[in-house]
Specification:
binds glutathione; globular; 45% helix; alpha+beta; 10 helices
C-alpha cells in the first residue's frame, strides 16, 4: 500500500494550521456564529435557506413534489446560502440551524416561526405537516423511516469519507480511498438488493425515503458525484440504475434538483426560487441572456 505517513499525532490536537483541501477556509473546530447577519424573509409560508448539494436537493424536491400534489401551503422561498463563503456562520443562519449546515427551513405559517434543521427531519416534518409521501400504515411507515434514517447514517461515509478522500483531499491516501470505496460499494449493493425486490425503497409507493436517498445514491449511480462512476463501476448496480432513472424523470424532481444550484449547465441552475415561474424565467441561461 502506498502513502506510508511520517505523521505522529501529538498528545493534544490543536488548531494551529490550515489543513488544506477544498474546504480549508471554512473548516473550524468550534460552533456558533462568526458574524451578525439576519436571514432574508420572503412572501411564502416556508422559508428555505440552502444550497443545491444533495442534502439541499432533498428538500427542494420534496417541496416541488408537495406543490405538484396540490398542497398550496408548500409554497416556498429558497434563499441561497453560499457555504464556501461562510454564510452558514451568520447569526441568522445559526439561529435556524445551530449546526451551521444547509439545509435549514423556517415554517412561518403558524403564530410562531418553527425552525427545522437536518434534511431528514425537514422531510419528515413536511410529510407530516401535509400528510403526504410518508405511509400511515405502521409497518409501511417503519420501512419508510428505516430507509430515511439509513440515508442519514450512510451518506456521511459516501460524502465525508469516499468523496472527500477520492476527490477533495490534497493528497491521495490509498488506505482512506480503499476503505471508503469499499463501504460505498457495499451501500450501493444494499440498495441494489432492496430495489431488486421492491419498486421503491419503502415498497410500492414513492416516499420521503426515495427523496432522501436519490440525490446521493442516484447521483452517484449516474456518475454525477465526484467523477467516480467508472472507479466504482456504478453501471453494475442495475436496480439502482432503474430506480435512479425513474425518479430522475419525475417533473418535480427535475425542478427541485436545480434550485439553489451553483454548478453545471446554466439552464439547470436556479440560484433562488421565489415563485413557480422562476423555473421558466430565472435559470442562469435566461439571466445571462438578459445581460
Ligand atoms: N446531516 C446533515 C448534513 C448537512 C450538510 O452536511 N450540509 C453541508 C453541505 S451538503 C454543509 O452545509 N456544509 C457546510 C459546512 O460544513 O460548513 C443534513 O442531512 O442536513
Amino acid at each position: 500500500m502506498s502513502n506510508a505517513s511520517d505523521y505522529t499525532p501529538p498528545k493534544v490536537w490543536t488548531w494551529n494550521k490550515a489543513s488544506g483541501g477544498r474546504f480549508a477556509n471554512i473548516n473550524r473546530p468550534i460552533a456558533g456564529p462568526t458574524s451578525e447577519k439576519e436571514l432574508p424573509v420572503g412572501k411564502h409560508p416556508l422559508q428555505l435557506y440552502s444550497l443545491g448539494t444533495p442534502n439541499g436537493q432533498k428538500v427542494t424536491i420534496m417541496l416541488e413534489e408537495l406543490l405538484a400534489l396540490g398542497h398550496k401551503g408548500a409554497e416556498y422561498d429558497a434563499w441561497l446560502i453560499k457555504i464556501g463563503e461562510g454564510d452558514q456562520f451568520g447569526s441568522g443562519f445559526v439561529a435556524a440551524n445551530p449546526n451551521s449546515k444547509i439545509p435549514a427551513l423556517v415554517d412561518r405559517s403558524g403564530p410562531k416561526p418553527v425552525r427545522v434543521f437536518e434534511s431528514g427531519a425537514i422531510l419528515l416534518y413536511l410529510a407530516e405537516k401535509f400528510g403526504a409521501l410518508v405511509p400511515t400504515d405502521s409497518a409501511k411507515r417503519a420501512e419508510c423511516l428505516s430507509w430515511l434514517f439509513w440515508q442519514m447514517g450512510s451518506a456521511p461515509y459516501l460524502g465525508g469519507g469516499f468523496g472527500h478522500f477520492y476527490a477533495y483531499a490534497p493528497t491521495k491516501i490509498e488506505y482512506a480511498i480503499d476503505r471508503f470505496a469499499m463501504e460505498t460499494k457495499r451501500q450501493l449493493d444494499v440498495l441494489d438488493r432492496r430495489l431488486a425486490e421492491s419498486k421503491y425503497l419503502a415498497g410500492d409507493d414513492y416516499t420521503i425515503a426515495d427523496i432522501a436517498v436519490w440525490p446521493w445514491y442516484g447521483g452517484l449511480a449516474k456518475g454525477l458525484l465526484y467523477g467516480a462512476g467508472e472507479f466504482l463501476s456504478v453501471h453494475e448496480y442495475k436496480n439502482v440504475q432503474r430506480w435512479a432513472d425513474e425518479i430522475g424523470a419525475r417533473p418535480a424532481v427535475r425542478r427541485g434538483r436545480i434550485v439553489n444550484r451553483l454548478q453545471g449547465d446554466p439552464a439547470a441552475q436556479l440560484h433562488e426560487r421565489h415563485d413557480a415561474s422562476d423555473f421558466d424565467l430565472k435559470t442562469q441561461d435566461k439571466v445571462a441572456a438578459k445581460g
